[in-house]
């Protein structure tokens, strides 16, 4: 078994046939002298198998998100979970996980040189929205601070996950009841987020995407918010968390 301070491998989550989509990322990694491993995920564009569907709690998803997820979204989340299992079954100390349309540059190369990345069991290298502690809790490298997650952000473009974090994610997120970003409350894991961000992403309409069309169709069926939520304890707890935290992006 690798030592806990061994370098984390880089997994690039991709699909068979997506050579053009992932090539810019692979070229950037090669240019920085960083090795990687392609991790082929589940392609949900043609539907999911019965075994895959059995790993999903669709009623829980609808309750949580007030809409259904398309098969491509579910497949993306299941693919991330498959990486978590691989970390554990292969006895890895952790991994740096990049989706194949991630944008990496010199800051990512410097970050990889500073490893191992043991400041937390999950480090978000890219993120959007969410709420965070008002002050940083650590320095990831010169010029890049880390803020603890209070309300989970979106985006799973790039992140670091320890073996302990992988086990926690599988325990907390099985059966699947949410999107890849994130199917459970990663603030309970003690996740932290980099600021400035170390990994970039394409904005909507740029780059490659498998999800945009089918996701848009499912969002049209989103259930309306009921006024009863104003009377719930969870609603006001959320309001308090927002008031005591900050956005980064």
UniProtKB/TrEMBL annotation:
Alphabetic keyword roster: Transferase
**Top-rank lineage group of the source organism:** Bacteria
Please list the residue ranges annotated as the Glycosyl transferase family domain. Answer: 9-175
Quote one Gene Ontology molecular function term: transferase activity
Q: In its UniProt entry, what is this protein called?
A: Glycosyl transferase family 25
């Amino acid at each position: 078994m690798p030592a806990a301070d061994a370098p984390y491998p880089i997994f690039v989550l991709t699909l068979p046939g997506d050579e053009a989509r992932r090539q810019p990322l692979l070229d950037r990694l090669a240019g920085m002298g960083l090795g990687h491993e392609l991790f082929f995920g589940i392609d949900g564009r043609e539907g999911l198998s019965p075994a895959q569907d059995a790993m999903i709690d669709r009623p829980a998803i609808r309750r949580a998100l007030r809409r259904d997820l398309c098969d491509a979204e579910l497949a993306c989340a299941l693919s991330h979970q498959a990486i978590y299992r691989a970390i554990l079954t292969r006895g890895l100390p952790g991994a740096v996980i990049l989706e194949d349309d991630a944008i990496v540059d010199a800051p990512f190369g410097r970050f990889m040189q500073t490893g191992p990345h043991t400041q937390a069991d999950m480090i978000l290298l890219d993120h959007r929205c969410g709420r965070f502690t008002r002050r940083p809790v650590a320095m990831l490298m010169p010029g890049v601070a880390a803020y603890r997650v209070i309300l989970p952000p979106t985006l799973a473009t790039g992140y670091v996950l320890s073996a302990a974090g992988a086990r926690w994610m599988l325990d907390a997120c099985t059966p699947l009841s949410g999107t890849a970003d994130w199917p459970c409350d990663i603030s309970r894991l003690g996740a932290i987020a980099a600021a400035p961000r170390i990994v970039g992403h394409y904005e909507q309409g740029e780059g490659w995407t498998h999800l945009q069309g089918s996701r848009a169709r499912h969002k049209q069926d989103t259930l309306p918010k009921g006024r009863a939520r104003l009377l719930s304890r969870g609603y006001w707890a959320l309001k308090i968390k927002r008031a005591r935290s900050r956005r980064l992006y």
